[in-house]
Write a structure and sequence with these properties.
The chain has six helices and 18 strands. Helix 1 links the parallel strand 1 and strand 2. The strands form three sheets. A six-stranded parallel beta sheet has the order 3-2-1-4-5-6, with helices on both faces. The chain has a six-stranded antiparallel beta sheet with strand order 8-7-18-15-10-11, covered by helices on one side. Strands 14-13-12-9-16-17 form a six-stranded antiparallel beta sheet, with no helix packed on it. With about 280 residues, the chain is α/β, with parallel strands linked by helices. The protein is elongated.
C-alpha cells in the first residue's frame, strides 16, 4: 500500500509525528509518499517525492497530520482523488482525527486491513456561477456592514419561513459538532444523513435549528435595507465569496463523500467522550 502524508508543519511536534508515521509505514512494508515541496524538510531516502497531483493519483490513502483545519484542507484533495483519510491530531481538539500523535503505531492496522471506512456526507452550494462544497458547514452571513439581513428560506421550492439576523449555518452531521454546535444546534450522529439549518444571532426568541432530510433542496433569498451591501458565502471557514444582495443561493447534498479511516474503539461517540468531555472531569 502507498500512503501520502500531508503535514501541517506549523503545529508543534508535527515533524516528530511525521517521522514516527514514516517509521511505522516502513516497518509494515508500506510506501511513503510526500509532495516534492517537502524534500528539504524530510531528506530520507525511503520517501517517494512527487508533485502533489501525481502523488495523490498513485496513493491508496492519505495521512493528514495537524488539527481539524488541516484535515478539512486535506479533505478537498482526498475527495477529488477518492482517497480515504487518516487524521492524526497535532492540534487542539482534533475532532475529525482518528488517532493522537502518540498512537501512530496504530497505522499498522491499515497494512493488516483492520480498519473500516466511515463515509461522511457533504453539502454543496450554488449562487449564480459560484459553487462550493463543505465537509462541516456552509455559512451565509452579512458582509462588511453591521446591518441585519432577512433570509427567505424555501424547501423544495416551497416557502418555509424568514430568518432575521446575522445569517445562517448549513451543516452536515460532521459539522454538527463545529460552528453549528456553537450556535446552539444539536449534535447529530454521522450515520444519520441530514442538513442542519441554524440561525446566527437571530432577532427572535423562538428560532431553532431545523434538520432536513438529505434529499431536500434548500433555497435562500437574502434581503437587506442596504441594496448595495453584499452577502458572504463561505465553506468550512474558507475565504468568503461575495454574493450580490437578492441573488438566490441553493444548498443540497453533494454527490461526493469524504472517507475517513476508523479503527475499533475510535468512533464518533468515543470522540465525543474524549473531545467534548462528556466522559468525566478530564483533569
Amino acid at each position: 500500500m502507498k500512503g501520502y502524508i500531508i503535514p501541517n508543519l506549523e503545529k508543534p511536534n508535527s515533524r516528530e509525528c511525521v517521522i514516527a508515521a514514516m517509521n511505522i509505514m516502513k516497518k509494515c512494508g508500506m510506501a511513503v509518499m510526500m509532495s516534492d515541496t517537502m524534500r528539504e524538510e524530510f531528506p530520507f531516502h525511503h520517501i517517494t517525492f512527487q508533485p502533489k497531483e501525481q502523488g495523490l493519483r498513485d496513493s491508496d490513502f492519505v495521512i493528514a497530520i495537524g488539527g481539524d483545519g488541516t484535515i478539512l484542507h486535506v479533505a478537498r484533495d482526498a475527495v477529488l482523488y477518492n482517497l480515504p483519510v487518516l487524521g492524526i491530531n497535532a492540534g487542539r481538539v482534533g475532532f475529525l482525527a482518528t488517532i493522537e500523535m502518540e498512537e501512530t503505531h496504530l497505522i499498522e492496522k491499515i497494512a493488516l486491513g483492520n480498519y473500516k471506512i466511515d463515509e461522511r456526507m457533504l453539502i454543496e452550494a450554488r449562487a449564480g456561477k459560484e459553487t462550493c462544497w463543505a465537509v462541516n458547514e456552509i455559512v451565509l452571513t452579512r458582509g462588511e456592514y453591521s446591518r441585519i439581513v432577512d433570509i427567505d428560506i424555501l424547501c423544495d421550492g416551497n416557502p418555509l419561513y424568514t430568518v432575521r439576523g446575522d445569517g445562517v449555518i448549513l451543516s452536515t452531521p460532521t459539522g454538527s459538532t463545529a460552528y453549528a454546535m456553537s450556535a446552539g444546534g444539536p449534535v447529530v450522529d454521522p450515520a444519520i444523513s441530514s442538513i442542519g439549518l441554524s440561525p446566527i444571532c437571530p432577532y427572535s426568541l423562538f428560532s431553532r435549528t431545523i434538520l432536513f432530510a438529505p434529499e431536500r433542496k434548500l433555497t435562500f433569498q437574502v434581503h437587506s435595507a442596504d441594496r448595495n451591501s453584499d452577502l458572504l458565502l463561505s465553506a468550512d471557514g474558507n475565504l468568503g465569496i461575495k454574493i450580490p444582495m437578492g441573488q438566490e443561493i441553493q444548498v443540497e447534498r453533494s454527490r461526493h463523500t469524504l472517507q475517513l479511516i476508523r479503527f475499533e474503539g475510535k468512533g464518533f461517540y468515543e470522540a465525543l467522550n474524549q473531545k467534548v468531555m462528556w466522559g468525566g472531569s478530564h483533569k
